[in-house]
Design a protein that fits this description.
This protein has about 300 residues and is of the alpha/beta class. It has a single domain (about 20-290), classed as Alpha/Beta hydrolase fold, catalytic domain (Rossmann fold, 3-Layer(aba) Sandwich), CATH 3.40.50.1820. It has helices at about 1-20, 100-105, 125-140, 160-170, 195-205, 210-215, 245-255, 275-290; strands at about 30-35, 50, 60, 65-70, 80-85, 95, 110-115, 150-155, 180, 230-235, 260-265. Helix 4 (about 160-170) links the parallel strand 8 and strand 9.
């Protein structure tokens, strides 16, 4: 009888997980689901339903599936380039930058917003599985006019950490062609703000050790094969201090990696006060790298 009840409970649990509600972003040209906790190699062990944070349709929490929201490049300007955008949110939720994705598409760059599975107190293997899987998948979408050698990554804050991780941890022949990081969280061993501390618990779990933080500090992962990287941030950022980006820039230059660092004096943990400047910097950077050349 006990064995029978155990089987019934297990089946009920599977049914509950399988029936877990997920959400999808509206407005994209195409939505692709890569996998969820029942089909992926790793799970983040999230059992709650996905939900829009505070009712906002651009900020999601409790993610248990990986979906790609594709904004297709303007066909008359298609450069063959694509950029995967990893949302920030302190590894607690994901803030989708839809206007920025549309801006990239208007330039002839296919933009992909990545809904990745949050680490959920230490299950970061699912998170990095999604980040790397998105790069691999988009390279196969030559039907969208994407050149596999022109696929780059971008991320803000915690998403910047994830984009930097992809830039360094993937095999050399799989690394993205370029990286654009907005006020990224880089060095996990130098956390000085409450927000950084909370993100650490989400990423590594509450019982993490120093070695865990060291292993995921991307400034220690840089090599000569790290892709060209553009960093942009504000000097008065009190969420992720500017030294986080400067330490990464220093590591990049020490290894001979093409890098550009833009630090604006004011604006906090955002670039909203410098929209014109940072967009110009991105265009110049991609032109210089010949990413947007379509010849």
């Amino acid at each position: 009888m006990k064995q029978f009840l155990a089987i019934v409970f297990a089946l009920a649990f599977v049914a509950e997980v399988s029936a877990q509600n997920t959400v999808s972003l509206e407005g994209a040209d195409e939505t692709v689901r890569l996998w969820d906790n029942t089909t992926a190699k790793h799970s983040n062990h999230e059992t709650r339903d996905e939900a829009w944070r505070k009712g906002k349709k651009n900020s999601v929490q409790c993610t248990s599936s990986c979906e790609l929201y594709i904004f297709k490049a303007d066909p008359e300007k298609n450069t063959g380039a694509a950029i995967l955008m990893y949302p920030g949110g302190g590894y607690t939720y994901l803030n989708f930058a839809v206007p920025t994705a549309r801006w990239y598409a208007s330039l002839g760059i296919t933009a992909v917003l990545v809904k990745y599975r949050l680490p959920n107190y230490g299950h970061y293997q699912a998170t990095i599985e999604d980040a790397a899987g998105a790069v691999r998948y988009i390279r196969t979408r030559t039907d969208l006019g994407i050149d596999p050698t022109k696929v780059g990554v971008s991320g803000s804050s915690a998403g910047g950490h994830l984009a930097a991780w992809v830039s360094n941890a993937m095999a050399d022949d799989e690394k993205p062609a370029f990286a654009i990081l907005h006020f990224p969280w880089i060095n996990l061993t130098k956390c000085v703000t409450n927000t950084e501390g909370k993100a650490m618990f989400q990423l590594l779990g509450k019982n993490y050790c120093y070695q865990d933080a060291l292993n995921l500090s991307v400034n220690n992962m840089v090599s000569s094969t790290t892709p060209p990287t553009l960093l942009m941030l504000c000097n008065d950022d009190n969420v992720v201090p500017s030294v986080s980006s400067t330490s990464y820039y220093k590591a990049l230059t020490q290894h001979g990696v093409k890098a550009s660092l833009h630090i604006y004096p004011k604006g906090g943990h955002s670039l909203k006060n410098h929209t014109k400047e940072y967009k110009t910097a991105i265009i110049d950077w991609l032109d210089w790298l010949k990413i947007t050349a379509n010849d």
